[in-house]
Inverse folding.
């Protein structure tokens, strides 16, 4: 089977599986189950825009208060779909404080575990701005047939076998990697299928967009303050000043920069000394995609994928995007941290 533009996700997954020497099909099945859950969540997110419009006429089944439940809905939808695949024995989700383990016979034998942020950028949902779902898949360490343990979920990002995100935007896309490059699929609503739209995504080595919440400027370290100044300076050779773009939805900000070239930074601040983003639910999967597309991801000093999570809710400063931009930002962090 040849890869062609608009190829449906499921066909692409099967085609790619043929390329992997020892592939057994479980990972493929799992990815297609994720695609199904994404379509269901997408349907509900699309409806949310109608609440104000239809709600006052009483013809919408969703109430404004229910919008706030969409994150819980997305969480349970993904958990159910993943459980049904039978290939995953447990899930850790940003929405839950404990891991969810599957005790049905099929799932107990599942070779994988999954970490996810079911609805990222959630505060944007009532103003019609893009939100996302982020997922990552690891091989389990515990014995098949037994209940998974917390250690299964505390592996370094380099152990991921697949990672991806769904962006519910002006169109809905699924972008994922299995360690052989990054591919993007756009949901064609007329046929209800994710179709191949972005084959082998490569992110530009040098970009011109910087994405950081500058409202926290006074809370940033000197390294970050000076890097922002650098982004704003005039320099013809390096095409500065750069453009500032910040949605406040990691998936959307990262996705734009992945395609156009840019850097996303969520550093530590005086009131968030560890940063805000979760290592296992947000940073590791995004870092895997960034690297697979030729980009870079670090905490300002260390490669994200090599950090061993201490607990499920570990937060880290996050720098990701075009390789040369991230490297430059890291030099600012190093230079000014020595001064402090
Ligand atoms: P979530 O909606 O899953 O809690 O994540 C929100 C995150 C991330 O998506 C975004 O980049 C960041 O929070 C924005 O934070 P600020 O509003 O502090 O900039
Ligand atoms: Mn998030
Ligand atoms: Mn979330």
């Amino acid at each position: 089977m040849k890869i062609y533009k608009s190829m449906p996700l499921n066909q692409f997954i099967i085609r790619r599986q043929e390329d992997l020497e020892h592939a057994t099909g479980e990972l493929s099945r799992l990815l297609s189950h994720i695609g199904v859950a994404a379509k269901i969540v997408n349907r509900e997110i699309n409806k949310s825009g109608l609440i104000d419009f239809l709600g006052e006429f009483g013809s919408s089944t969703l109430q404004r208060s229910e919008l706030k439940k969409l994150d819980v809905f997305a969480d349970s939808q993904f958990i159910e779909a993943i459980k049904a695949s039978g290939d995953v024995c447990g899930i850790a989700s940003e929405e839950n404080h404990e891991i969810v383990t599957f005790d049905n016979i099929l799932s107990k034998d599942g070779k994988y575990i999954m970490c996810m942020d079911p609805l990222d950028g959630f505060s944007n949902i009532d103003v019609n701005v893009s939100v996302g779902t982020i997922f990552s898949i690891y091989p389990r360490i515990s014995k098949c047939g037994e209940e998974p343990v917390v250690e299964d979920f505390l592996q370094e990002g380099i152990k991921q076998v697949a990672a991806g995100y769904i962006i519910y935007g002006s169109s809905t896309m699924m972008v994922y990697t299995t360690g052989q490059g990054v591919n993007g699929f756009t949901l064609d609503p007329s046929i209800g299928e994710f179709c191949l739209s972005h084959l082998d995504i490569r992110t530009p080595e040098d970009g011109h967009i910087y994405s950081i919440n500058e409202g926290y400027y006074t809370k940033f370290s000197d390294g970050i303050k000076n890097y922002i100044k650098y982004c704003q300076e005039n320099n013809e050779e390096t095409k500065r000043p750069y453009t500032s773009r910040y949605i406040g939805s990691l998936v959307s900000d990262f996705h734009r920069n992945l395609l156009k070239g840019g850097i996303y930074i969520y550093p530590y601040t005086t009131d968030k000394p560890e940063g805000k983003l979760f290592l296992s639910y947000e940073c590791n999967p995004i870092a895997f995609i960034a690297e697979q597309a030729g980009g870079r991801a670090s905490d300002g000093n260390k490669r994200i994928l090599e950090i061993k999570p201490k607990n499920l809710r570990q937060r880290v400063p996050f720098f990701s995007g075009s390789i040369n931009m991230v490297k430059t930002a890291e030099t600012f962090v190093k230079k000014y941290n020595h001064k402090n």
